[in-house]
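Subject: Interface between my chains keeps coming out wrong

I've been trying for a while to get a sensible model of this assembly. When I model each chain on its own everything looks fine, but I need the whole thing in one frame so I can look at the contacts. Pasting all components below, labels as-is. Any help appreciated, I'm running out of ideas.
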Amino acid sequence: MTTDSTPQLRTAEQVGEQAGAVLREIGRAVVGKPDALELVMLGVLAGGHVLVEDLPGLGKTLLARSFATTLGLDFRRIQFTPDLLPSDVTGTPLYDQRTGEMVFHPGPVFTHLLLADEINRTPPKTQAALLEAMAESQVTVDGETRPLADPFLVIATANPVEYEGTYSLPEAQLDRFQLRVRMGYLTAREELAMLRARIDRAAPEAVLERLAGPQDVVAWRAVVERVEIDDDLLEYAVALVAATREHPQISIGASPRGGLALVQLARARAVLDGRDYVVPEDVKDLAVPALAHRVSLRPELWVREMSTDDVLREIVDGVGTPTTRRTAAVSS
Amino acid sequence: MAHGERTPQRAAPGVVLAAAVVAALAVAALALRPAEGLLHSGRGPLGHWGFVAIGISAVWTFGAWTAVQRLRHRFGADRLSLPPGEERLREAAAPLLLATAGVVGVLALVLHRFSTGDSTSGPPPPPATDPMPTPTLASLPPQERPGSTDHSSLPLYLVLVLLAAVAVVLVVVAVVRRLRRFGLRVPQRPGLAGAATGDDDARLLLSAVRSGRRALSGTEDDARAAVIACYAAMEDALVASGVPRHASDSPADLLARAAGAGFTPGPAAPRLTALFREARYSSHPMDAAHRQAAADSLEEIASLLDARASDGDRNPGDGDGNQSDRDRNPGDPNPEARR
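Reply #2:
Try treating it as a single job with all components included. I did that and got this:
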């Protein structure tokens, strides 16, 4: 599975099966979170970056490490702290005494999968160092631009409840994340199963098998790029984005980048489902994770602890899906 | 932030408002007796005409209603910025103030002393020449006092009954609106609900399926259109069966809603939905095999509906079957086993 020399010939169905196998394997380690795992996999397929936002101890770091292991990706982790410097992320040139030259020492960002743990604990200056890497897959140090690995994926975690000593991510950086994932607590039955599995394996974490490699991920993304989407569905995505800009409880609506992310994630979901075409469910089900972190609520709603997820769900329930009949004729 | 804010409504010109206030004061002065004290019970030149009182009440009520409509947005806009204590006070005061303005119009009409015609048209009666001692004003019952017209006003109990009726109507309207806001449905009469899930539904479903068959026969050359027509027929059938269809529903939502409503047309519906998705949202070539598969799914749904209609004919008036069976044979613990 990991070494397919002709990645361009893969079909959406094949990629869907392979990605499904990866999800099942990760599911052995991250118990009871199939929806969160699927969303992260969509980020992998769509070539975006994922923000995992939830309380401590819910398995955010385990999730990122499990994806790196199962996908066979080079993995680095940055624990963001208030004293972290931008050069700690991107790398820095150091003087080599033997050669008398400045030699660039790449930072942890030069990897396939970067886990940015507790990204909201570092000042904006260091957060911004990650911006260029996330948006353009390259870093510029001392005027020299260096490309990052392909694939390059950032899985960032953030704790939404602790505000002491944290720096909220600016909208510009939030917009760089293709989707936001919330883990949520396990049910009592799932938590019991997790404890039982921990006792049975007699080890802190499950040992996962590598089922793919970097080239596979690149090939999967190429398949996503071939997924077709009907014009009516594009209009539906645009209507959803536009509704966020007109909603009375939202002060800043989703950006055009949000629409791009929504469509790309919908195409990835189609591939994960073994299809090479997008259906309304792909767009509708992904509207909240793709757009909710890109909008800002009016300040008075913060006091009421309303979340952007709630408002986005209300928007999704109010925007009409494409009609049953086609608006433009397509020949058989 | 400019977008998302409500466009302010254009206010009425000040001259118009001033003229309206002056006119209202003039009418009020003519209807009352401006030369007398505030608590004087007499009437002014316009006070004899009942239609003036009716008109003033109607205009007042209409004005109060218009003001309520205009002020509702302001109340709604301000509520988000209030602390919880003031918010509760606002929630109590706002409806009270708005409702009171309307009630004043109703009270003005109800409490108006309508003239009967004979007490004011004739000359005042001559002074009594009876040697009997003249009773003092305080000793007379109210209906016999000079100038009193209480016999022509509405009795107090009638006023109270009217006010109670208005209050009941307002409460019912408020409850219904609150139920609708939370997505709840007003309970219907059992007889109507039972009829809606009986034979009529089955006939509606079958007619929808038959329309799908007709559409299928009319699109023999276009497999894509035929598949979409089959799905549209199934969609119509589900809607006819009482499954609510929202504009924001995806095909999966409709199937889930149908399952939630107890309508389970077997595996044919998901199969037909999958075919529809491919026909509607992909450019895959659609051929006779797809058309045939869609037609087969539609036939399967039709046969299920036929069976359901037959069950309905055998058990007329049976909404969901089980309850009626239990009613007819309460000792039978498993009525399904007899079918």
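Reply #3:
Confirming on my end. Chain A is about 45% helix and 15% strand.
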